[in-house]
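Long-time lurker, first post. I've been practising inverse folding by hand and with some scripts of my own, and I keep getting stuck on stretches where the structure tokens seem ambiguous. Below is the full token string for one chain I'm working on. Before anyone asks, I'm not after the true native sequence, just a reasonable design that respects the backbone. If someone could post their per-position residues I'd love to compare against what I wrote down in my notebook.
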């Protein structure tokens, strides 16, 4: 099916397929880039949120310590871990994120880590220099980005998480050392982490918007390129080839070698047209030589005093000169293509089996010398002829040429067949 399409259609399809391949590859790479950029932006926002919560916690702890501010049950909301968590969550709410503070040694059950957070805290615990951990995962089948940033215990944190006897009274009373495991931290020890959950629907929606805009732009470029390359192909390749094909058809139909084309350049098509023009010149020269040769041959055969009849091995007549027309009373147009047996009289004993059978068995004898036969005119009357036969081959086909001359008319008039 593809082979039967026009050259322009084929080249347009090939160009479109090549461009479509690059278009698809560009979209794939763009999708990866947009995804990485979207995740990177989400991580950066999570990083800022977590740093804000950490800095708020550290700021409150430092100022409470410097100002000798004693925390109490009435000031529970000002406890650094509580205040920083609430402030951070308000900022996270504006972005549709979720922020909380988690620890393996939690006091508030709301700060208990889930499975992912436990694994992340273990990683942060084992790598003291690590400043963050994040992964793409799912919650209830929905894609999310999980982010953890560690809290390291500072001196101000030990007010509530150091030795139990140094903790504020309401902390010591609310969380007795016998049952609470959030005491006895050392400076620099991992005390917990800011945990942020970012729904990826937001990120994916942004990726889709960016991809949609890029794809619309690329589709426009793709269509413009296909159209431009198709027009260029039509002008540079198809149109010259159509002109060349038209001239070739004209040469075939008319047999004339006068039409030539002007090469449009020195490229392959220009070289093809130049070669065609050179071929036309050569064929015109050869045609002129052939026409001259054929003219001489026609003059020779038409002015010959003897009848000349040429026929193929199957007996089909292919040449019948003017003298043969006179002798046999046939017009050339009526006899060409007719079996040569029509010119043989039924009383001719030599060729009674037909010319083809005779030549098959006696071609060498017929060619070697002068032979006599009884021929037949158009009206059926007998005609005594003597002939010489020659054989030739052209384009792999054998043909014979007989030169015939009537014997004396008396022999024909007085009856008996001289060769019977």
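-- Answer (accepted) --
I ran through it position by position. Result:
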């Amino acid at each position: 099916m593809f082979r039967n399409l026009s050259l322009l259609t084929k080249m347009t399809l090939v160009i479109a397929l090549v461009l479509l391949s690059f278009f698809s590859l560009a979209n794939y790479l763009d999708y990866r880039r947009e995804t990485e950029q979207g995740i990177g932006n989400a991580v950066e926002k999570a990083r800022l949120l977590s740093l804000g919560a950490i800095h708020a916690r550290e700021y409150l702890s430092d100022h409470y310590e410097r100002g000798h501010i004693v925390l109490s049950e009435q000031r529970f909301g000002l406890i650094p871990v509580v205040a920083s968590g609430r402030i951070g969550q308000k900022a996270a709410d504006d972005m549709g994120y979720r922020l909380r503070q988690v620890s393996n040694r939690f006091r508030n059950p709301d700060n208990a880590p889930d499975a992912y957070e436990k694994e992340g805290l273990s990683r942060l615990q084992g790598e003291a220099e690590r400043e963050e951990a994040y992964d793409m995962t799912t919650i209830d089948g929905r894609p999310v980005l999980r982010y953890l940033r560690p809290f390291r215990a500072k001196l101000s944190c030990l007010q509530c998480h150091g030795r139990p006897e140094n903790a504020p009274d309401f902390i010591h009373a609310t969380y007795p050392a016998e049952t609470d495991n959030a005491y006895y931290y050392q400076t620099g020890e991992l005390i917990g982490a800011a945990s942020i959950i970012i729904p990826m629907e937001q990120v994916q929606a942004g990726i889709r918007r960016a991809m949609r805009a890029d794809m619309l732009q690329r589709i426009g470029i793709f269509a413009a390129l296909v159209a431009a390359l198709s027009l260029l192909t039509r002008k540079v390749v198809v149109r010259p080839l159509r002109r060349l094909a038209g001239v070739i058809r004209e040469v075939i139909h008319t047999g004339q070698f006068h039409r030539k084309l002007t090469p449009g350049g020195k490229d392959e098509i220009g070289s093809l047209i130049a070669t065609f023009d050179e071929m036309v010149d050569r064929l015109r020269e050869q045609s002129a030589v052939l026409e001259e040769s054929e003219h001489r041959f026609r003059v020779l055969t038409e002015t010959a005093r003897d009848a000349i009849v040429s026929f193929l091995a199957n007996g089909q007549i292919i040449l019948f000169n003017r003298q043969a027309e006179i002798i046999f009373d046939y017009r050339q147009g009526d006899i060409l293509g007719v079996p040569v047996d029509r010119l043989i009289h039924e009383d001719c004993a030599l060729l009674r089996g037909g010319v083809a059978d005779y030549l098959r068995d006696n071609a060498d004898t017929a060619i070697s010398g002068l032979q006599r036969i009884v021929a037949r005119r158009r009206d059926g009357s007998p005609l005594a002829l003597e002939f010489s036969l020659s054989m030739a081959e052209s384009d792999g086909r054998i043909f014979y040429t007989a030169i015939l001359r009537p014997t004396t008319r008396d022999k024909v008039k007085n009856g008996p067949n001289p060769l019977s």
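A couple of notes from the structure itself: Strands lie at 98-102, 133-139, 142-152, 190-199, 307-312, 317-320, 371-376, 382-394, 397-406. The chain has three domains: 7-211, 255-299, 304-413. Happy to go over any region you disagree with.
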